[in-house]
Specification:
mainly alpha, 67% helix, 0% strand, elongated
């Protein structure tokens, strides 16, 4: 995991710079965790296909892995939430630039600041709601019907991913307010094949 570039925060006061660097590092960790979840999800699905194929040849082998689909859905949710913060910092989210393209530099900064602030508030509320949701499952001892998995565990994972996205939007709000670069090109992939 490469370190964030120091020139991205050159105009920020020292405590703010530390905060932005910490959030960027969490964003990079977020991307790696998302990639690990995606790799695990792929392994689950390949194992399910292999077991199904083997059960057609050897009748003694069960036709399915009982927890594969349930855990795959947990991993899919984790992939979506864990990849979001790094994708935002890399500038990889889909954006409609119709308005941004018509604004000058100052107008663009104001627009970016307002959009990031609204997104930070929204994702902050979503993270708060997910933490409460996971806490309620923990308090009740709720388990899934299929595998008796404690539901607070996958819910906490999703809540953590959304919290990291909220922090990245907070960092983007600060960067827009201070006139810093909003995206880190070193986090982007070099080509579509990556």
């Amino acid at each position: 995991m490469s370190a964030p570039r120091p020139d991205l925060y050159a105009g920020a006061p020292t405590p703010v710079r530390w905060l932005l660097v910490a959030i960027d590092r969490l964003g990079r960790l977020d991307g790696w965790i998302g990639a690990a979840c995606l790799a695990t999800l792929t392994c689950f699905l390949l194992a399910e296909v292999a077991v199904r194929a083997l059960s057609n040849i050897f009748p003694a082998i069960p036709g399915t892995i009982p927890v594969a689909w349930e855990y795959s859905s947990y991993l899919m949710a984790a992939c979506f939430t864990f990849g979001a913060a790094m994708t935002l910092r890399a500038g990889g989210h889909i954006r409609v630039t119709l308005v941004l393209g018509r604004l000058g530099q100052a107008g663009r900064r104001v627009f970016e600041f307002c959009a990031a602030l609204v997104a930070a508030c929204f994702t902050g509320f979503l993270a708060y709601a997910m933490v409460n949701f996971a806490w309620a499952s923990y308090s009740r001892g709720a388990t899934s019907m299929a595998s008796n998995t404690l539901l607070w565990i996958p819910q906490s994972v999703v809540a953590f991913g959304i919290l990291l996205l909220a922090l990245q939007f907070l960092a983007r709000t600060i960067q827009a307010a201070l006139g810093l670069r909003l995206e880190d090109d070193t986090m982007r992939v070099a080509s579509v094949s990556e």
